[in-house]
Design brief:
Order of helices and strands: EEEEEEHEEEEEEEHHEEEHEEEE
CATH superfamily of the largest domain: Fumarylacetoacetase-like, C-terminal domain
Number of helices: 4
């Protein structure tokens, strides 16, 4: 069995840093987590830091309709090749941070997903070599303005609002990505319950396909798609995304502050 490692990106006071998690202790790291790094002698308890989104991607490349039942619930055809779109980096928020229900949006949906974190520059990658380009995995919520998605036809506006991509809590290596549980809980009630073994297009397929379209940089995210069971959220709701081996990503929905 592979050795499972958990990393965090966090802040303490005015300092932001990466750390390796052992139990509830964070070992602060020196250097570039996607390059050369080493452990420092500094230790923090989880309660002493604020957990941040576990990476800072230049882009989040998302895959639509990658579970057959999700395509069916949206009455959309199963694609013959991956359908991809980009969320800007300004969508990303931390664990525990609020998702804003913006005035332009009438229906705000959750979408639980496994997120792949790229570890090295990837361009024209062969499918059989794709695993070599992956650093690890985290959990993500592809928050969607469903009414605007249906209205616009293309998805940039519906997917691109600020706060529409919570990520975290950890960046994990050594888990078995081809068969992980992906769930969402709205106010404690189970809404989505899928497994990555149900993906139409596998993780190596996605890395290879996307890298033939655009260069993926260290820290970039691939959102692998969501299982069936998506639904609306309202201000005051709490949405929890659970991905097996990674942990629980919890965010609250809020109206914009004046």
């Amino acid at each position: 069995m592979a050795n499972i490692e958990k990393f965090v990106r966090c802040s303490a006071g005015k300092e932001t840093f990466y750390g390796r998690l052992e139990g509830e202790t964070i070992i602060a790291l020196k250097g570039d987590i996607f390059g050369s790094w080493e452990e420092s002698d500094r230790r923090f308890h989880l309660n002493e830091v604020k957990l941040l989104a576990p990476c800072q991607p230049s882009k989040a490349v998302c895959v639509g309709l990658n579970y057959r039942r999700h395509a069916a619930e949206l009455t959309m055809n199963v694609p013959e090749e991956p359908v991809i779109f980009i969320k800007p980096s300004t969508c990303i928020i931390n664990p525990g941070e609020e998702i804003i229900s913006w005035p332009m949006v009438e229906r705000l949906d959750y979408e639980a997903e496994l997120a792949v974190v790229i570890g090295r520059t990837a361009h024209n990658v062969k499918e059989e070599e794709a695993w070599e380009y992956i650093f690890g995995y985290t959990a993500g919520n592809d928050v969607t303005a469903r009414d605007l998605q249906q209205k616009d036809g293309q998805w940039t506006r519906a997917k691109g609002f600020d706060t529409f991509l919570p990520l975290g809590p950890y960046l994990v290596r050594g888990i078995n990505p081809p068969d992980l549980s992906v769930q969402s809980y709205l106010n404690g009630e189970l809404k989505q319950d899928g497994r990555t073994s149900q993906l139409i297009f596998s993780i190596p397929c996605l890395v290879s396909f996307i890298s033939q379209v655009m260069t993926l940089l260290p820290g970039d995210i691939i959102m692998t798609g969501t299982p069936e069971g998506v639904g609306p959220m309202q201000a005051g709701d709490t949405i929890e995304i659970r991905v097996e081996g990674i942990g629980s990503l919890v965010n609250r929905i809020a109206a914009p502050r004046r």
